[in-house]
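A protein record in our archive is deliberately plain, so that people and models can read it alike. The record that follows is passed on verbatim for readers who wish to inspect the format.
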Amino acid sequence: MFTILFQFSYYALLSWFMLPIEAPVSQNPLTTHGITFQYYWRGDSLEIQLSAPTQGWIAAGFHSDNALVGTDLYMFCIRQGNVMYQDQYIRNLNDHPADALMGGRSDVKIMGGLEDEWGTTVKFRIPLQSGDTFDFTHQVDQQFWLLLAYAEEDDFQHHSIIRKWVPYQLTRPSP
């Protein structure tokens, strides 16, 4: 019981340190299979915080359908204290090149990250509408499928040990 409370308190404390003080509360936080997804509105961007109980890579993906092919995928890991990432597009099973390799671009802005014995947390910002063919267009109050995953290794080609699809919807904070 102490371990569970300590880990919960640790992640709550970590969230407090990772997020700027002026950040509004996430409208629709989600935790499934140990992965936590939170977002915050920042003008024409989403600031996303993603956490999982691993020292390997963590990922979030967006798709209008419950399908792997066509998913806008963001993968992160922390190596020697630095956040490494790829903005990818899933073309087929085991085929998810970086957008830039297909003529697109990476629109990710890294805000921070932390990895320790309890897991990995990254915070990043993406535009709601990047104009990149390989990026998902985020819209308020429209349901989409959120992919959350993580692996035990930092290598982005390493298979996930957890991969979950969740129907999700972005909502704006009340004025």
